[in-house]
Amino acid sequence: MSWLRSTFELSRQTALPASVTKEDVLRILHDHSAMITLNPIVIKHQKVQGPVSPPPKPAEDETTLAPEPDDIFASATSAKYDITDRISYLPGHLWDSSITFAGWFADTADGLRSFVQAPLGVEVRGSWRVYSAPAFIPDGSGAPDIYLVEESTIYCNSLLRAFIRSTMEKSHETLHQRLIERLVGGYGGPHDNVHR
Hints:
alpha+beta, 37% strand
């Protein structure tokens, strides 16, 4: 029933330290495994081997924040992963469970696009982009040199909306903090250890 279907958007802008370059950020964004494991609720992931079909296209009445066509997921820089999250349904980890779902990741010139198809009809279409201050802030005065902007459109059952929003806001805040720690601490490439 479509009246139970809900759509909402989340956006997070993170000012990056002056010592960080756009190339540094893109190196991590293009390391899909690093991006997946920086999320604190991810407990494991595995790249799907062999030919991978692109994710399903959005319904006609659904829009996304990312302007590129979905065929970007069929590019040579895209990959599909099986991802397992540990979700806490009650405070204090009184009731935890794990869920496994499919996630597609595709590199772009200025960042990363992602699509997640989770149980119970939850879909998340996201983009991560690196912006320089003049492009992001009109006057650019006194602003950091670059920003990381994450934008997501989430499709889910209306009854799950508040829980999904809260879980994503908390986990992605930590993900952004961990990403900055990695950038400031030095990122050694795809085989560099990441937070688990």
